[in-house]
Structure formats: C-alpha cells, structure tokens
Write a structure and sequence with these properties.
- This protein is mainly β.
- Helix content is 0%, strand content 59%.
- Strands 1-2-3 form a 3-stranded antiparallel β-sheet, with no helix packed on it.
- A hairpin with a 2-residue loop joins strand 2 and strand 3.
Length: 49
C-alpha cells in the first residue's frame, strides 16, 4: 500500500509578532489527514510595493 504524504512550510500572516516577524508553520498531510505545527522560527516581514 502506498501512502501519499505532502509537506508544506508557510508563513502565517494572522500571527505576525509585535517585532514585525512572520512565524513559519509546517503542515503535513497524510492520506488526507492534516497536522499543523509551529516551527518556532520567524522571518522578517517584507513591506510590499
């Protein structure tokens, strides 16, 4: 039996810190079941054009 696994790292804009940092989250999907975790890593939020 083959299992389909998908891994996605993304920035969660709804959780921007007071220091203007964007937290990085990890979503793992296995056979349609999703699990979401905070990586406890942040990146600076760039201002748009």
């Amino acid at each position: 039996m083959k299992n389909k696994i998908s891994i996605l790292f993304y920035g969660k804009k709804s959780r921007i810190t007071s220091s203007n940092l964007l937290p990085i989250y990890l979503r793992v999907t296995i056979e349609g079941r999703r699990f979401e975790f905070c990586t406890h890593r942040n990146v600076p939020l760039e201002s748009g054009p």
